[in-house]
Design a protein that fits this description.
The chain is α/β, with parallel strands linked by helices. It is 46% helix and 14% strand. A hairpin with a 7-residue loop joins strand 1 (3-6) and strand 2 (14-19). Helix 2 crosses helix 3.
Length: 269
């Protein structure tokens, strides 16, 4: 399958999603949009998954975005009122969910950027919380060069994540930046050698999965909710989000474990 979802035995609470179409620069066709959307929906609904990792297959491209010869041509046919196949139609319906544009994964996402992240691949990265990239990775939003508006995550998420001037440099020039510049912009967390990339992602994913899952979920959701609030409202809402967690079994377990000098065993309750 061009989109794979697996849970490694050594990391039972971590989902690994792989975009596996390296011969076509891991570009997303309608079938892959449907499969990727299905993978995200599964992760969002599975309480046993506490963190997810996204990677691209191969050693050159993370994801180049939508397949112009398939997804975009089907979209153009639909806009012209022409018939498309059921699979194509479902793939077009799935684009926003596939790119996590407006779809809440409810789970922390780590991107292991193994190469170029362009268009929809860049959109997917913007939906993640943590990003590691190889030294030869590049990042670009090229829609303006194609006469298009970047309707994924770029205009919504990018100015919230990096500086105003940096965000506009990327969105308005359409020119790629390298990994060093992405690190300087604050777009990625760390540059990692290719042979260590996935291990680094799993190391962080496991650290997240080892924490109290209710607290992780609430913290992730809280950041997304509070970021657009005024300070007074944000502090009030922060207390509302935090209060219920103090009464959970996991909070009590953490206290007992601290007193007993042992590692807590969280159950998500």
């Amino acid at each position: 399958m061009p989109v794979q979802l697996e849970t490694p035995k050594e990391h039972p609470h971590v989902a690994l999603v792989t975009i596996d179409r390296p011969e076509r620069a891991n570009a997303l066709d309608p079938l892959m949009n449907s499969q990727l959307a299905g993978a995200w929906q599964h992760i969002a609904e599975d309480p046993d998954i506490r963190c997810a990792i996204l990677r691209g297959a191969g050693d050159r491209v993370f994801c180049s975005g939508q397949d112009i010869g398939a997804t975009l041509s089907a979209s153009q046919k639909l806009h012209r009122g022409e018939r498309v196949s059921e699979a194509e139609f479902e793939g077009l319906r799935s684009v926003s969910t596939a790119l996590l544009a407006g779809f809440d994964l409810k789970t922390p996402l780590i991107c292991a950027v193994n190469g170029h992240a362009r268009g929809g691949g860049f959109d997917l990265m913007l939906a993640s919380e943590i990003r590691y990239a190889v030294p030869n990775a590049t990042f670009a939003l090229e829609e303006v060069a194609l006469g298009l508006y970047p309707t994924g995550n770029a205009t919504v998420m990018l100015p919230r994540q990096i500086g105003w001037a940096y965000a506009h440099e990327m969105m308005l020039t359409g020119k790629p930046i390298d990994a060093e510049k992405a690190l300087r912009f604050g777009l990625i967390n760390e540059i990692v050698e290719p042979e260590a990339l996935l291990d680094r992602a799993f190391e962080t994913a496991q650290a997240i999965a080892d924490n109290a899952p209710l607290a992780v979920t609430a913290t992730r959701a809280g950041v997304r909710e509070l970021i657009s609030m005024d300070l007074e409202s944000a502090y009030k809402r922060q207390e509302e989000l935090g209060k219920p967690l103090r009464k959970t079994d996991d909070a009590r377990e953490a206290q007992r474990a601290f007193m007993e000098k042992r590692t807590p065993k969280f159950q998500g309750r």
